[in-house]
Amino acid sequence: ERVEVEILDPAGCPRYTARVIEEVKITESPFWLKRKLYSAGMRPINSVVDIANLVMLEMGHP
Description:
By secondary structure, the protein is mainly alpha-helical. The protein has a domain at 24-62. It contains two helices and no strands.
């Protein structure tokens, strides 16, 4: 499956990454992940949202 992305402002968005992930089981996040999010001032939601938030935090783009 292909995802089409249109960058309207290339200067404001020099890099964009998209990925299709199928058959994901949404569960409660593990304690270590919740702890990292709480320490960053974020509230855990579920495993999918939380891992996306962790990646953004680690890349410096929360």
